[in-house]
Specification:
The complex is a heterodimer of chains A (178) and B (545). Chain A is mostly beta strands. Chain A is built from 5 helices and 12 strands. In chain A, a hairpin with a 2-residue loop joins strand 5 and strand 6. By secondary structure, chain B is of the alpha+beta class. Chain B is built from 19 helices and 18 strands. The chains are: A mainly beta (178), B alpha+beta (545). The interface between A and B is medium-sized, with 31 and 28 residues. Chain A: It comes from Solirubrum puertoriconensis.
Chain lengths: 178, 545
């Protein structure tokens, strides 16, 4: 940890509040969400597919009496090849979006890490190379040799984003798949 | 069971005592700040309500006092008088007298004489000096030692009851879950506890639902005034008959249908009942009759709005629908009366050629339809030219629990509310006919379009592929749904069972999809989508091959 604090001290003289992230893997990259946005992590419950929703919306599930939508970000951002099915057991991150809770499907158990806030940098230009559009990215965290893309969940989980609603599209919910 | 009169009396007591407490409080405020507008306004309102309630239940004496007090407070409010001088003790005496009279009602005693007070109130109203004796000028010992009373009834905001009902809904789901698990585990002790839990949960559910029930009369009793006003504005003579005020229904359901009922009553007077001259010419009594009735039928409540007016002109509705481009003339000509009536519920439909103050303001029966749909209810129309029209609203008694048919489709369970289920049939492919790319089933002398639900629900919004009877293998389980007089058969994989379900709304953001009225949790913990038949019917019409 010494090297981060050294880096941090250069920027601000006061001791820095660490940022806690929940880190998970999508495709070949690591992504992080601020821990305050994560309500809980659980083994994915049984999902009922909901017809007439975009494909990456896997369906709805019963999470302790709350019925929440579960989405697959790998499918949303095309991070997984079609020949890579989901394993039998997956995990769900329940995320608090603005007005509702939503589940995000991940393949491996997500890990919490604590990093100084200063190690999250503004997303640089090379972000165009990766598949997630930069407007959802809060920043890039460098930890050891890892690069963690910190997502802005509130932007990613607006109703319009999830339902793939686009202005002018007549049948927007299905447009993505055609 | 308490008599209705007793129940009304208790309600009156509860409201009146509360009003009395509020009056005492506000008049004390007024004593300190004689021009406090909020207090004046409240006093005026409280007097007005008390007057109306007291008169309605037959305590004219309370009404008389409240009426005079209301007038005086009204004049103070409009600055014609000031709250000062000899008027003050009279008003205080008035509030005290109201309190005494209310307590007398509660104790079933004869009401104290209020003639001196009334005389003084009249004097104040005429601008004369009231006759004050010393006992009235200074509060007596009796007043100072007055007992404090609490009402036997509590008011509960409906939100709290809603919350309670939601919790009970969750409990019912868990109860089913526990029952299923206890059967699987097979432990005797567990089974006994589960059975007991189940009975308790049932009782609790029943009690909470019961606490939310109100008499239909609470809504119906507002209509004599409405009918009078509308009839006067439309220059018609209408006599209103009300029946079934005692029928109990969930308070929120009554709330949701309020506008619909108002609309139907206005329509019945505006469009249905003729003017006295027209009626006389048609050989009817010049006095039109309108009936509001409620009755229970199985678990449903039927509310009828019956008029003896001119009836619905089916041909005119047809012409209007064609003129609006709702459907081609040749199709319109073939529709049955019932199908023609259902056209009237489409948005923007109105046969009234003149816009009057009361009816025909551009809002149509579609408002009624939407309200009833949101409850999972049905609207039926019967009409005879020249004899009148009856609208029947079929409503659930309670919002929480609905009968539903459970079925399986592509390894998932779905539920369909019984309210929209007409029948279930199991047919061999040769009993179905492909006509114009659409499958038709003949059920009870009626040709009903049939569609594979899986195809209807697929991701495409394109028209469905023409149906191929050869592709159907073996017996087909078909649920015949009915919405707005339109029937539709849905081919599902397998019927499961009939069950009472607790419907939870679909959470955001998926609530944008209107095909699902909600979700329910099955005893197994499985999530089960509840299909919305109105939306499903619309989808079918849009995708018809």
């Amino acid at each position: 940890m010494t090297e981060y604090s050294a880096a941090a001290e250069k920027k601000s003289p006061r001791p820095e509040v660490p940022v806690q992230l929940i880190v998970f893997r999508l495709g070949n990259e690591e992504y992080g969400i601020r821990i305050e946005q994560v309500k809980e992590v659980t083994v994915t419950p049984e999902i009922a597919r909901m017809p007439k929703t975009p494909r990456f919306v896997k369906g709805i599930a019963n999470l302790r009496g709350d019925i929440i939508a579960i989405i697959d970000l790998e499918e949303r951002f095309r991070l997984r090849r079609a020949d890579q099915p989901l394993p039998l057991q997956t995990f769900t991150l329940a995320i608090e979006a603005r007005d509702y809770t939503i589940g995000i499907l991940v393949r491996e158990v997500p890990q919490p890490i604590s990093i100084p806030a200063s190690s999250i940098e503004q997303a640089p230009d090379f972000i165009q190379d990766i598949n997630i559009h930069d407007k959802y990215i809060e920043g890039i965290a460098r930890v050891d040799n890892r690069i963690i893309i910190v997502l802005d969940m509130l932007k990613l989980l607006t109703p319009g984003e999830i339902m793939q609603l686009r202005p002018k599209a007549t049948s927007s919910a299905t447009a993505e798949r055609k | 069971m308490k008599s209705r009169e007793q129940e009304y009396r208790e309600l009156f007591m509860a409201e009146a005592l509360e009003a009395y407490d509020a009056m005492s409080q506000h008049i004390s405020v007024l004593e300190k700040r004689p021009d406090d507008e909020a207090a004046l306004h409240e006093l005026f309102r409280l007097m007005h309500n008390l007057k109306a309630n007291a008169r309605a239940i037959g305590f004219a004496e309370i009404g008389e006092v409240a009426h005079r007090m209301e007038t005086i407070f009204g004049e103070i409010r409009s600055k014609q008088r000031i709250f000062a001088g000899s008027l003050v003790p009279v008003l205080f005496a008035g509030v005290d007298a109201i309190g005494e009279m209310i307590r007398a009602v509660g104790a079933n005693q004869t009401l104290p004489n209020s003639s001196v007070l009334l005389e003084n109130l009249d004097r104040v109203m005429r601008g004369e000096e009231p006759l004050l004796d010393s006992a009235q000028a200074a509060p007596s010992d009796e007043d100072a030692n007055r007992k404090l009373e609490l009402s036997d009834l509590v008011y509960i905001p409906i939100k709290k009851l809603d919350h309670l009902l939601n919790l009970v809904g969750e409990l019912i789901i868990d109860r089913d879950r526990v029952l299923t698990l206890s059967q699987e585990i097979g432990n005797l002790g567990l089974s006994n506890v589960a059975a007991h839990l189940s009975r308790l949960a049932d009782d609790l559910q029943y009690s909470v639902m019961d606490a939310r029930l109100v008499g239909v009369g609470t809504l119906f009793n507002k209509f004599p005034r409405v009918v009078r006003d509308v009839a006067t504005a439309e220059q018609k003579q209408v006599e209103l008959t009300i029946s079934g005020q005692d029928i109990q229904i969930d308070r929120n359901i009554l709330q949701i249908i309020t506008d619909a009922l108002l609309h139907l009553v206005r329509n019945a007077i505006g469009h249905g009942i003729e003017t006295p001259e027209e009626r006389t010419r048609a050989g009817k009594s010049p006095l039109g009759h309108l009936t509001l009735s409620a009755q229970t039928e199985r678990d449903d409540v039927l509310i009828r709005i019956i008029d003896d007016g001119r009836g619905i002109d089916v041909e005119r509705v047809r012409r209007k629908a064609v003129a609006r481009g709702q459907l081609p003339a040749d199709v319109a000509a073939r529709l049955t009366d019932a199908e023609v009536y259902s056209l009237m519920f489409e948005a923007g439909f109105s046969t009234a050629e003149q816009v009057t103050e009361i009816s025909g303001r551009g809002v149509g029966l579609d408002v009624v339809k939407l309200a009833i749909d949101s409850l999972g209810g049905q609207v039926r129309v019967d009409s005879q030219m020249g004899q009148g029209t009856t609208f029947t609203l079929v409503l659930p008694t309670s919002i929480a629990v609905k009968g539903a048919l459970l079925f399986q489709l592509e390894e998932h369970s779905y539920a369909l509310p019984l309210m929209h289920t007409d029948s279930v049939v199991s047919l061999r492919p040769e009993q179905l006919h492909a006509v114009g790319g659409m499958l038709l089933a003949k059920v009870q002398e009626e040709h009903i379009p049939v569609v594979k639900l899986a195809e209807l629900l697929d991701d495409s919004d394109e028209p469905l592929q023409p149906a191929d009877r050869e592709a159907l293998m073996g017996r087909q389980d078909i649920i015949i749904t009915s919405y707005n007089g339109r029937k539709l058969g849905l081919i599902v994989d397998q019927f499961l069972r009939q069950q009472d379900i607790v419907i939870k709304p679909v959470s955001q953001p998926l609530d944008m999809i209107d095909l699902f009225g909600g979700v329910t949790l099955l005893g197994s913990g499985q999530v089960c989508l509840v299909l919305d038949v109105p939306a499903l019917t619309r989808l079918f019409i849009a995708r018809r091959p």
